Amino acid sequence: MSPKTLRIFSTTAIARTCLAGTLGLPLLAAVQACAAPSGGAPTAQSAVAPTSPGPAPATSVTSKSPRATATRPSPTSSSPASGTAGHQDPFGSAARAYVNGRSGTVTAAVYDVSTGQTWTLGSSKPQAEASVVKLNILEALYAQHGRDGLSASDTSLTRQMMEDSDNDAATDLWEEAGGPSRIASFNTAAGLTDTEPSSCVQCPDFPWPGWGLSTTTPTDQLALLRELVKPGGLLTGSQRDAALELMENVAPSQRWGVSGGVPAAATVALKDGWLPLNDSNTDWQINSVGWVSGSGRDYLMAVLTTGNPTEQYGIDTINELAAQVWQRLG
Fold first, then answer.
1. Which fold has domain 12-328?
2. Residues 223-234, mean pLDDT to the nearest whole number
3. pTM (2 d.p.)
């Protein structure tokens, strides 16, 4: 199987290596229970890869975006508390009613870069990251190298990992970044409180990379995204620009999610993730995180969804929610 088309996830391994210790838990709960780092021998039940055995996901953009077509966000001098004067709640009654009518569990968060407002939707329970963990890998690696910059080889790997969602590149960079312990240290410095890097890459009885077992929340993903758009954090200006460029130029088949309903003239920098949680492909984890700027809007958005009956169903859910957020922030 080609490393650039790897997306198959087996849950047979879950039954063999995890469920013995988590019998009675729902499948995703079992996955999350086995994903967190521990002092003992690592166990893993599923992992995430960038492509699936089925058709390519529907896309909201048909070609790679050019370099930023909107002005890059400028830092705000303060961060008002959630719900203060500014934009209306982008998760209005219509959005909440829409999500309540969808199968599975949807959790999301939006951060307005200009006002500092944050809004959340749904449960705060962590979910599997899928390939959105690759943004965490990228930022941790950047922060460790500082102004020295990455080698030419690592720079090439970052492009493969972010633009093509290549798993082999992600595995190499996960190790280069120091694995779960050093990535967790970066996360603490960045203000993440509910993200757990996976404890293994080569997991027992499972053929795919285990870093996809990391779990997170939308608000933690907003913290990672803020590192890209606000100066004075853990990354240099050139690192922030480089990361956004990679996310603005993901492969055409991966330009869905937080870009849903956003006009082509706006700038969207995103990373998506997707994985089936059972062998019959009837339980999907679908995620999307990113930055949207244009037409007077400047915001970060993160959406995690689980329990989707098909891959496309989850994509459609995020696309529609993203479209409603775009409209309400106008």
1. Beta-lactamase (3.40.710)
2. 97
3. 0.78
